[in-house]
Give the backbone structure.
Amino acid sequence: MSTVLSEVINLSQKDCFYIVERHKSEFTYPLHRHREFELNFVQGGKGVRRIVGDSVETIGELDLVLIGAENLEHVWEQGDCKSEDIREITIQFAPDLVQSILLSKTQFARINRMMEKARHGLSFPPEAILKVYHFLDGVASEKDSFIQFINCLMILYSLSGFEGKTLASSSFSHAPRTRESSRLMKVKEYINTHYTEDLGLKELAGIVGMSPSALSRFFKEHTNKTLTAYINDIRLGNAARALVDSTQNISEICYSCGFNNLSNFNRVFKARRGVSPREFRQLYKKTKIIV
């Protein structure tokens, strides 16, 4: 299998942020990953296809994404975009900036919670983008490095007040999960270990000593997902990872990830990912290069 390009960021030990602004008519950079956190803003890119882990989406006129996991593959592809002037602003910073003495203080707790979620990739809603637009608009051209630093912090702080949309699934990105109640963790851990098997509500309820109906309500209340939807997400994430990293055929992947019907697997995958399993595999093959 080919490997994903590992990008080396031009960020020295003395720098807090690496900021670059580009105007272009085409996205040509291949699928890649890097250890640094990245906030990427795209304006005028309606129709561009964004891939972050196993998330495949077509963006609108404005797009803002925060990525914070070393092994999370991502790329912006031209897709159906016809714009002659796409504006892109990229802000990158090292993981140890978040872990520094300054940012570990109470005042930065909200930012740090957002950074944890960014391990899966976070896409921000239009109202969040408009909130930080005036900071983004001038951050690359700001001559005073201290003001530039403060403006970057203001961008992160403002964004941390919004509920960004999680992009890559946990089972694809291998990102650690946030702290949860012990019963919820126990159920999720069991599902993560036994997702290839036929999982029933009664069986899962017995693990945590709850009735099936009580567990169903409890799980939906704490995750905003039904147990069936969560199990499907885990299976789909592992299936997407297998499509990228293995040479198994789609039928083998379908059954090895807990689906018992190939047509149902294809239907659910396309409904959740926007492309069929075959198209998803082709997207990664097309954007991968050997390094």
Summary: The two ends are 12 Å apart (CA to CA). The longest strand covers residues 86-93.
